[in-house]
């Protein structure tokens, strides 16, 4: 974990929590029962249910540990409460245009919530870092793997209360 704040929206935190509760409360106990049943069948060295169950249990425990750490480090920020709605901050939805007049609509969310294909960009992504604090009409230069691009901010919105 880094020293940076781990920002997340209330919906993103709820999704992490739901995954944790599903794994811990449903999937893990069912898997433990399967492993116990398989262990009772005798030779464990060739018992597929036992071998697969132990492997899957380790995966679940690793994921539970990761989710637990992320939830403890999370700083839940509700974009609805953003006071300065004239600039791009966490939770903002920004409409930007590049030099080729290609328009993109991006929402700045927590890194764990990012889905670039749906326009949800992680707070620490290069384009999100470049857009932080920008107002309508500002030009921002972004260093991307494909090269440097310049974007103009043409609209900023936040979720309604």
TrEMBL record:
Keyword Transcription among record annotations: yes
Location of the Transcription elongation factor GreA/GreB C-terminal domain: 86-158
InterPro entries: GreA/GreB_C_sf, Tscrpt_elong_fac_GreA/B, Tscrpt_elong_fac_GreA/B_C, Tscrpt_elong_fac_GreA/B_fam, Tscrpt_elong_fac_GreA/B_N, Tscrpt_elong_fac_GreA/B_N_sf, Tscrpt_elong_fac_GreB
Key words, A-Z: DNA-binding, Elongation factor, Protein biosynthesis, Transcription, Transcription regulation
Domain Transcription elongation factor GreA/GreB N-terminal: 7-76
A Gene Ontology biological process term: DNA-templated transcription elongation
Family statement drawn from the similarity comment of this UniProt entry: Belongs to the GreA/GreB family. GreB subfamily.
Name of the molecule in the record: Transcription elongation factor GreB
Organism of origin: Sphingomonas carotinifaciens
Protein's gene: greB
